[in-house]
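Weekly puzzle thread! Below is a chain. First person to post its structure in token form gets bragging rights.
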Amino acid sequence: MVDTVRIVGEIAVVTATAEFHPLRETMLLTSQLASLGFEGVVLFDLLAVNGLAPNRFASMRFEKNRFDRSSFVVEDHVSSAIKKKQDLTARSDQTFLLGSVLSSDELKDFMH
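Winning reply:
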């Protein structure tokens, strides 16, 4: 099962699912991150909703219990360790993959 929020060092990795689009749920995320006492960069993995497009990953700063929307950026370079973990988690969850926007050809490519 895919965790929607996980903390990796000083980064919070938030994973979109077919039912959860994090950029549309910032109030819920604000509550979750604030309860964790988190401040720093939030990396959004939007594989489920954007597919393998260049805008799969985006980030925004979270400070003082709020998102700094002016810091939003599509990420060109994501830590290989984070990307690898996100890919492995996604590949191991058939329900996640079937609910994603990935086409059957993209799924084949992604699984290899």
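Puzzle host: Confirmed. Bonus trivia for everyone else. The two ends are 20 Å apart (CA to CA).
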